[in-house]
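#dry-run=false #mode=assembly
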Amino acid sequence: MSSTTATAGAVAQARRTSLHRQRAWTLKASYAVLTLMVVFFLVPPFYMVMTSLKSSAEISAQQGNPWIVQHPTLANFAELIANSNFQTFFVNSVIVTVLVVVISMSISVLAAFSLTRMGFWGSQTLATGVFLTYLIPASLLFIPLFQIIGKLGLINSFWCLVLLYPTLAVPFCTWIMIGYFSSIPRELDEAALIDGAGYMQMLLRIFIPVAMPGIIAATIFAFTASWGAFLYPLAYLYTTDQMVLTVGIVSDLIRGDVFQWGKIMAGCVLAAVPPVLIYAFLMDYYIAGLTAGATKG
Amino acid sequence: MADGTSISANLAAPARAAMAPPSGMRKFMRRRSTIAVLMAMPLILLIAGLVIWPAIYAIWLSMLNKRMTQFVGLGNYAFLLKRNTFQLVIFQSCLFAVTAVILKALLGFIVAHLMHNIPGKNQRIWRGLLLVPWVIPLALSTLSWWWLFDPSYSAFNWILNSLGFQSVPWLGVGWNARFAVIAVNVWFGTPFFMIMYLAALKSVPEQLYEAAAIDGAGPVQKLLHVTLPMMRNIIAITVLFSLIVTFADFDIVRILTAGGPQDMTHLFATYAFSVGIQSGDIPLGASVSLFMLPILAVAAFFVLRGVTRRTQEIAA
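#status=ok
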């Protein structure tokens, strides 16, 4: 009896050390593969930054390692910031994005509140419809929308983006907000109703503060969707005074066969800064928004 | 903005009025649902006006001739199906979507597992680094890929040359270009899968693994009989969702190859753009886009089913 427990103990001991060794090995292997993935993922942004710091002479020289900048210069950035076209693109992007975020969030918060808390005939169907709309890609409807935008006289005006981008943002934002609002306990609204609050007061004083994380996540989504959209501005805008960053960088900096790669990359870096900054400071909300589609609501 | 504020301003008054007099319950309910409809109205108008109406309009447009003067029925569809270029588009779209989604799902699954292995306090920084491709607007990062693939200045070719290999014409030869657009899509989409799978992995109860270990299950058996069944729904949802997005992709192909060489990398979206907007044949472009509809509808149906089930699982 005692001998069996002793051998069993030894076996367990041996297994524990081998298990320990195995764990350590797994950990090292995990880090190694993750490092490889990080390298793969960071190559384009790294090269973007490197190129943006090169002079055009260095880019065309074709000597030495292209991955490392030999004589870093901020000339590309300085020229771009002074370039009036680039300023226009940036300002247009900011105007469009701010308006779209405000419009989309107002529409989604009101609709999500109405769908989760008030309800009306067909509100369930509408909630499902909202989710289905989210699954409709922009590239399915851009041709009929071209005709519709044309009839509204908004072709080559960035106001057409203010009109169209909410269709990209609102369905998902509403879906996120439905998820967050339905997790708020009903006792809260009953208490508010007993205290004599109206629905608008309930929404503004209770729902919006309590669901703040959801609102931040949805706002981030609306921001990234409208800041980075490419198809609509490419299809509907064609003069430099109306363009936004995503298409402006290409159309303005490529003249015929001349590619000013240093400036193009500098433009990309500048255009990527706002979303990257938001991501750096609000990563948790960003990820909450990303995973909300499938795990909430 | 205008819509949102005006409606909220209008709403405040009736909402308070509804609360003040202790009138009959039925009247109250009727008021309440009227207010509810009003609050959802901007959403309904947006979806009806800019999603449903264009969709119906697209079907109508696709049945007109090029000048939009004559009704041609299904003529555009028949014309497209007979064209060699369009057959290439169908093949390339399916190849692109299926290959890219499989690769993204596999890589995402592996990376999520590796992330799950490492200690929790280190996960944040790694997750932060691995999500970068998803954060940079796709059109911008594709520009930087384009520059990496440049015929004369390609930085990849510099590496190949210094290792003693020949330069590769990344975007100049059909199958190379097909590989390149898939690679960029995988680069962009893998972080999404990783984040979804990591969230799902964390929600698998630890006791299940302990129970499996007591029953003598090895790592492979744990994966097959615990992890995969627990994650099945999330895997299905993400794969189908990504299939829709990848199938309808536009930015990558438009910027990298604009459909070339010899139309070998065109997807439905880029081909619709070049036919409908650039060549000005709106009806034909509309029919090209509409070819995506059946596939998207099937995928969307299953996504919806998966999400509903997932919701029920969470509720239960």
